[in-house]
From TrEMBL, chains A, B:
Mg(2+) 2 binds at D45, D73. It comes from Natronospira bacteriovora. Gene3D superfamilies: PurM-like C-terminal domain (3.90.650.10), PurM-like, N-terminal domain (3.30.1330.10). This is Thiamine-monophosphate kinase. Mg(2+) 5 binds at D211. GO terms for molecular function: thiamine-phosphate kinase activity. ATP binds at G119, D120, R143, S210. It catalyses: thiamine phosphate + ATP = thiamine diphosphate + ADP.
Length: 321, 321
């Protein structure tokens, strides 16, 4: 695309970028300038067409998703996502596509109180990278702080997005309300923004679920030098998933990716207060197990017998790998 | 690529990432945590295979380049590039390629005093995005501060990279020392790190040259609401370029991209002091013209006649657009 087209796009983003007093220099120079003090969390995530979203995904899905996956990382750190940079790679510049992309991006940015401080536009295969920066709400919540005896909590419900992905990979047309719910859970992951200020107060360790509960929780256990025992019966399932895939629901909850829920380790004495504070902020938390000292991840079925652990489900793109 | 491969790559980067006291949490969690105070410059740039570098470019060229283009933006802002995040998209994970990429990336990171604080690894068409963050050396140097009567200075020499690109697009084998120099100037852009602390003291406005002198300088003039008159005879040319392309050299200097030199507007009374300070830090600066009040960019030939302005040369990838 030509330089003139780039200028048009840049002006377009600038009009919608938003403002904050602590953004001293925004879109249009060699870089942005922000005013900050103290400890800042900083994340970056890329999503690629045909890998992290279907090649025919609507542009607002792409715009929403690239911001959502980064916001989810900031939440898991216990950070306030104040400022964003967007690096967008496009094969062609189509105004309707960009308009739609911006609708998805800026709607979520508005919810998160996040302004677009700058970015980069390049030509190439469709891909989007966002980097977010912002202050911690308190101490940094890492993967490494889980303690033996902690309760393991998870937000929302699990497995929905993986079921939604299958619907998206089919004809993409939901057959009923349950399928519509699941498809929406895949297409529009909702970062648990309300948990960001609560995690530093209540959680010893946290991370967000992108690759599936077992896969991601393993990272926390490894970083913390501990193990865990999960209860299959306690995994929170949506009514839609239970109705859509009654046989598979628990397996999807254990191993399905793209949920972008938060899993965390919490002192049992703090659990009730945390769950009440989260509920007051609109997020349900469920206790799904506890941290153990044997450095293994076990899942127990309703009879208390160990359930064989499923292999990590793969991302969309790995289907054609 | 599999999760196991990703873990290997992550460990590999972690070993070479470097450390700073103000990097509180580095590679391996949901995000990085840095300790900062005051005004921070923040940049992001993506480079795509076949667009910003040839598809067959050696991996260390890619690793060097993605960091160099971002460092150049930080220099132009007058900022200290302390911390980096890298989002790397690879079609396959090849250890030899990654090793070579890291050689290019970390050699330059070491020169710049920059540590890798984290990143993201994804599967997809080869592309690399870097975001850099760091404190300003003083005030932010923007594109908008040029004043009528300012001298326009440029670092190094112009046009070399564009001539080097043609060599790279040919058989890539330099025929002589001049061609080897030019090819190297294209493959390994050298951000003018030494200018970062000097620009806030001496320059009213600055930017780095990625798209060519005329194209990029126009952005500064527009942002500053001024014009400029450049002297064709004053454009700094390398001996190699003058020998390799005597007829074309000045046109390449005006319009060739990928130089990553710094152009800036400086009060004439400060010019000598700035040039001396830059020379002491190893960077040559050349006065190539002055800022005017007529909001146009003019280039005068040796007889003082206006030279027709060349269209902006295009990036590598635009050749096959």
């Amino acid at each position: 695309m030509s330089r003139g087209e780039f200028d048009i796009i840049r002006d377009y983003f600038r009009r919608r970028a938003g403002q904050r007093e602590d953004l001293l220099l925004g879109i249009g120079d060699d870089g942005a300038v922000v005013k900050a003090a103290g400890e800042l969390a900083w994340v970056v995530d890329t999503i690629n067409s045909g890998v992290h979203f279907p090649e025919d995904a609507p542009a607002h899905v792409v715009g929403h998703r690239v911001l959502a996956v980064n916001l989810s990382d900031m939440v898991a750190m216990g950070a306030d996502p104040r400022w964003a940079l967007l690096a967008l790679t496009l094969p062609v510049a189509e105004e309707a596509w960009l308009d739609d992309f911006c609708d998805g991006f800026f709607r979520l940015a508005g919810e998160a109180g996040c302004v677009l401080a700058g970015g980069d536009l390049t030509r190439g295969p469709l891909a989007a990278t966002v980097t977010l920066l912002g202050p911690l709400h308190g101490r940094a919540v890492t993967r490494a702080g889980a303690r033996v005896g902690d309760d393991i909590l998870v937000s929302g419900t699990l497995g929905d997005a993986r079921a939604g992905l299958d619907i998206a990979l089919g004809d993409g047309a939901p057959a009923d309300g349950a399928e519509a719910f699941l498809l929406n859970r895949y297409l529009y992951p909702a970062p648990r923004l309300a948990l960001a200020p609560l995690l530093p107060r209540y959680a010893h360790a946290a991370l967000d679920l992108s690759d599936g509960l077992c896969a991601d929780l393993s990272h926390m256990l490894e970083a913390s030098g501990v193990g865990a025992e999960l209860s299959l019966a306690e995994l929170p399932l949506s009514e839609a998933l239970a109705a859509h895939a009654p046989e598979e629901a628990r397996r999807l909850a254990l191993a399905g990716g793209d949920d972008y829920e938060i899993v965390c380790a919490v002192d049992p004495g703090q659990r009730e207060a945390f769950m009440a504070a989260a509920a007051a902020a609109g997020v349900s938390l469920t206790r799904i197990g506890r941290v153990t000292d044997d450095k293994e991840l076990r899942v127990l079925d309703e009879a208390g017998e160990p359930e064989p652990l499923p292999g990590s489900f793969r991302h969309f793109g790995d289907h054609d790998a």
